Amino acid sequence: MNDPDRKALRAVRTAKNDYIRRALGSVAAGQLDAAAKHLEAADVAAKVLAANERDRSRLWSVSIGLICVLLILFGMTFRIRNTTVIVHLRTDGLAARLADSLPIATDLVTRSVLLEDVDSVQLDDPAAGVMRGETVGLRGEQVQVRSLAVSSGALLEIEYDYRQLRLFVRDGNIHGRFALRRGVLEVEGNREQAVDVPRRQPPMGIELWAAMTGREVVPARLSLELPDSWELPEISVTAVGFEAEQPAGSGEFRSTIRGGTVTIYESGRVVEMPRGESMDLQLAEAATLVLSDAGGELGVLLRGSASRIASGRQNHKPNYLEFLYHNKRVAFIWTAAGFLWGLLWAVKKSFLP
């Protein structure tokens, strides 16, 4: 509404009130005919104002309707920035970028350990000194993994095939401390070296360092023969993927997923992940990852915030409409805001016409 229209409406309201006051004065003076004329003029002014009010109400109704439709379309089209996910899968392998240089295994008992691309081997026995070689093997009655750590930012690739856990480390190094009871330590390199550990001795402490590796070179490799049931401590990762190149060197990747679910916290959806399903997961920040045995397959439990979560051709990140529908707190806030707006509008209509 432009300024001339507003001025005209104010003039009509003023005239209506003036006619009503004149009618009151005429009635008080006993001039009923004059009072009737003033009331007739006030009625005409009231009808003009009412017609204008209907036009304004119709315009407001249409505008509010369009705004609601646009908001619904916006809520259905655009997705929230990040969503909290809980990924529970069975796989035969994965790749993860480590966020921190934290131990990924402690107090794990195995029967054999094989580490390739080794930089140094340090034994508890001072007489043995420092041994060097390309491949180190520990086999015995009991091999205890006291600690196993990978440097921060390293790319960790994991393969698992019923008790055989294989770790490949790129862009970083690996450091392990082991205790060997009744077995043999074999070091292969320029010359083969072996150390027998009899049963009567206490467990021999062994410290291994794998050389710093790069993306384009052969990664450091560690193989563990694990018991039937095991679980590694929680680790922090900044990226994770569930694909493997098969056959190696072919340039073709396939999904390593064997089944499981993905729970989307903001929408309450539980997405089934069938065998061989591809998943595109992009983490918004460091997430927690727990690995364990899942009936001969690699069990994965991942909790974190994702900027993208999709499987197949479906994007599972909730849109704003789903988010508002399932988030009762946000819905309550918007409902309260709408109620207060309506209340204030009613007060304005009643006291500020």
Provide a short characterization of the protein structure:
With 353 residues, the chain is of the alpha+beta class. The protein is built from 4 helices and 22 strands. It is 29% helix and 43% strand.
Q: SSE layout and pairings?
A:
Elements: H1 3-29, H2 32-77, E1 83-91, E2 93-98, E3 103-105, E4 108-116, E5 118-123, E6 130-131, E7 135-150, E8 155-161, E9 164-170, E10 174-188, E11 193-197, E12 204-210, E13 220-225, E14 235-241, E15 243-245, E16 253-255, E17 257-264, E18 269-272, E19 279-283, E20 287-294, E21 297-311, E22 314-315, H3 320-326, H4 328-351
Antiparallel strand pairs: 1-17, 1-21, 2-8, 2-14, 3-7, 4-7, 4-13, 5-6, 5-12, 7-10, 8-9, 9-13, 10-11, 10-12, 14-20, 15-16, 17-18, 19-21, 20-21, 21-22
Helix pairs in contact: 1-2
